[in-house]
Design a protein that fits this description.
Elements: H1 24-49, E1 78-84, E2 89-92, E3 100-130, H2 139-142, E4 143-152, E5 158-173, E6 181-182, E7 186-198, E8 203-210, E9 212-215, E10 222-228, E11 233-239, E12 242-243, E13 248-256, E14 259-261, E15 265-287, H3 293-296, E16 302-316, E17 321-323, E18 331-339, E19 350-351, E20 357-374, E21 382-398, H4 408-411
Length: 449
């Protein structure tokens, strides 16, 4: 095969030295290694930091964020406790009660080696909290605090050593004050607030709630008469005027005038159902602070709120005794127990000068139907289709049980002017003979063993 003839003057290309130059395969291997290194670094960064967005720069120094530890309040050099020594504070009777006497010990427990106090003061405060104030977020409209009594146990700075130190106190609560009350419209609370100031400007405080109750003495049973015109029906009810949150009471019910006679027939009334219930009514006047007087029309005025809830009741459909031949137009007698439903936490009756009033009503509703019957007594009674709903209500007072307790003024020793005259003294300078007792033989007294 003939060879190819190259043009004249054209040089052949020089052969390049490929020994020291990296080949294409070497460049590809280097690129693969670089990419693999980058992917490995990115994977390690992801595992270490969670994601690329959360990677921290390696050129700067960053401080990891840690949540701060909870701050612990420094320990006080002493603490205060109140130990009551008297029975519970109970007003026996109405607003004219002689009050309730309470006493106790204020205990200062020094935990350090010693503590120097500049003052120890205690205040008995009554707070009236309105749950529906004139100003919605105004503390002056919602809460009114009155200081009833204050005690200052030290008059100059005093140092107390480690241990317990006691300070006695006592006070007579006036009987006209309202009892502790918690209802849907307002709260009335009492508390003993103690504050002690140290020489190092530390404040040691303590608050002890004081519950005040009222117990009304049970009066005789109350008898009430109700008339329901245009009929001849009369209802006589005997019930207890004072009831308690726990326990039941009897209600005696008698209806007269259930028979009305004509010439040939007579009209009768029969009881179909009797419903009774106990309703709790509360009323409160929310006072306004000077900043919100314009909302109620001026100084000394407020907004009145009322609320009612049912705290007990039942329906009775049988159990009464009917006598159509009784004197006075026949009668129906019934006796049933009534009580406050457990778990409703009733509020005892209260009439507070702050504007809170709570009272209770016993409501009885009767459904009676009319029927005709012949005077001869033969034949069945024929219902006329007429029916009436008879409704009556009676005021009852809900109060705590007095138990065996008595008022403080009845258990105190007698006064000096109430002490009777002393017995006669012994006669020491009598020189005569003592008279012999009648019908007694003193000489024979030694004969008996």
């Amino acid at each position: 095969m003939p060879s190819r003839i190259l043009p004249f003057g054209r040089h052949l290309p020089q052969r390049r030295d490929t020994k020291n130059r990296p080949s294409h395969s070497d460049d590809l291997s280097a690129d693969l290694e670089t990419g693999e290194h980058k992917r490995h670094s990115a994977a390690m960064d992801f595992l270490h930091f969670g994601s690329k967005e959360k990677r921290h720069s390696t050129s700067g120094h960053t401080t990891p964020k840690h949540k701060g530890s909870p701050r612990i309040a420094p320990a006080k050099p002493a603490k205060i406790e109140i130990q009551m020594e008297s029975p519970p504070c109970v007003f026996y009777g109405g607003p004219t009660s002689s009050g309730a006497l309470f006493s106790g010990q204020l205990r200062l427990i020094v935990t350090d080696t010693e503590v120097r106090l500049t003052s120890i003061g205690m205040h008995l405060r009554a707070s009236a909290l309105t749950k529906k104030p004139v100003g919605k977020d105004c503390p002056d409209c919602s809460n009114k605090i009155t200081t009833l009594k204050s005690w200052n146990f030290i008059t100059e700075p005093t140092t107390y050593d480690h241990g317990t130190h006691q300070f006695p106190f006592s006070y007579l609560l006036p009987g006209h004050l309202p009892a502790t009350t918690h209802c849907a419209l307002a709260n009335i609370d009492y508390a003993l607030e103690v504050r002690a100031d140290t020489a190092l400007a530390d404040v040691i405080s303590h608050e002890h709630p004081l519950r005040v109750q009222r117990a009304l003495q049970p009066p005789p049973e109350k008898q009430s008469l109700r008339i329901f015109p245009p009929t001849n029906l009369t209802v006589n009810v005997i019930h207890a005027p004072v009831i308690h949150p726990i326990g039941s009471f009897l209600v005696q019910f008698r209806m007269n005038g259930i028979v009305e006679k004509q010439q040939t027939t007579q009209t009768r009334w029969r009881i179909k159902k009797l419903d009774w219930r106990i309703d709790e009514h509360s009323k409160n006047v929310s006072p306004a602070c000077p900043k919100h007087w314009n909302k109620v029309g001026g100084e000394g005025k407020g907004q009145q709120h009322e609320e009612m809830r049912n705290i007990g009741g039942d329906s009775i459909k049988k159990g009464w005794k009917t006598d159509f031949d009784a004197v006075g137009g026949g009668q129906i007698e019934l006796e049933f127990p009534a009580s406050i439903r457990p778990g409703v936490n009733p509020v005892c009756d209260v009439d507070s000068p702050t504007g809170l009033v709570v009272w209770h009503l016993l409501i009885v509703e009767l459904i009676v139907s009319e029927e005709h019957v012949k005077n001869s007594g033969h034949g069945h009674a024929v219902p006329t289709g007429a029916a009436r709903v008879l409704r009556t209500q009676f005021k009852v007072s809900v109060t705590e049980r007095g138990g065996l307790g008595i008022s403080w003024d009845q258990e105190q020793p007698p006064m000096y002017e109430d002490v009777p005259h002393s017995p006669p003294g012994y006669v020491t300078d009598y020189l005569g003979e003592l008279p012999m007792p009648p019908d007694q033989d003193l000489e024979n007294m030694g004969d008996h063993p």
